[in-house]
Amino acid sequence: MLSFGIVDDDAVSRRMLQKIIEKGGLGEVVGTAGSGSEGEKVLLETTPDVVVIDLLMPDQDGIETIIRLKEQGYQGKYVMISQIENKEMIGKAYQAGVEFYIQKPINKIEVEAVLSKVNEQWNISRSLQEIKESLTKLSLLHTGPESTRKKRSVREIMQPILMDMGIVGDTGSRDLMDIMENLTRHHKAEGIPPLKELYETVSRCHKVKEADVEKEGKAVEQRIRRTVMAALTHIASIGLTDYSNPKFEHYAPLYFEFQDVRMKMKEIDENWKPEKGKVNIKKFLQVLYLEVTDKMRSEY
Prior knowledge:
The chain is an alpha/beta fold. The chain folds into two domains: 2-118, Response regulator (Rossmann fold, 3-Layer(aba) Sandwich); 142-298, no CATH class. 62% of the residues lie in helices and 10% in strands. The protein is built from twelve helices and five strands. The chain has helices at 11-23, 36-46, 62-71, 87-96, 108-141, 154-164, 171-186, 195-205, 213-241, 246-255, 258-269, 281-298, and strands at 2-7, 27-33, 50-54, 77-82, 98-103. A five-stranded parallel sheet has the order 2-1-3-4-5, with helices on both faces. α8 crosses α9 (213-241). It is elongated, with a radius of gyration of 23 Å. The chain starts with a strand and ends with a helix.
């Protein structure tokens, strides 16, 4: 169960929010405060998973409080509440780390809906952390005498991953392999370069003329998008058949956005006409790169 902290200079709002959270079974309120400076102290002492914080407070506003909390190492999630509709102010709140925004006056249905989404995201984050820890443990199991271990190539490492996702034979999978080979050779940072740069790098690997690099890059982008969508469809189909299937439990939360998986499952289950759909290509490539490099490191 999630723990919550509430920071709002309006005592009535604090009581309403606490009642909605606890009566609705959304979590437990472990600390409340009537100002930003007081909230800073309370939140650092109670360290709740989620902070519901007012944007405008007299002594220290919500944005400043969030910034100060982050500087002191607090890593909870933030939900902002406010009466104002100033887009610039709301934009600053999101930049400071706010993930959701609730409009005052407080509405029970809206609060429950937003905090339920926060709960879903928290569960996904926890699953990702558990998967990462499991991958680390698995990599340790592969350690052994150097003479008895043969390092696999990037393509050999990717083969079972692509097979699990049902895309091993897709044209775009060859582009994925080219991208991963290039990243593991030339890119050492945790993040990956912009997608356009990746696509054009792969185009050059295909030895096209420089004048045609941009055109071929767009073709690479389309092939990869179709392949990633095919992977999403395959994983969603597995989840519909068996929600506890190890492949679904591993790939669905790790490689795809939760809402995209859920929408695809609904589309399949209710026999909707397939939509063009959306998928987070950047996330897919980032996770694939991290998984490939983890497996490579385990074989050294």
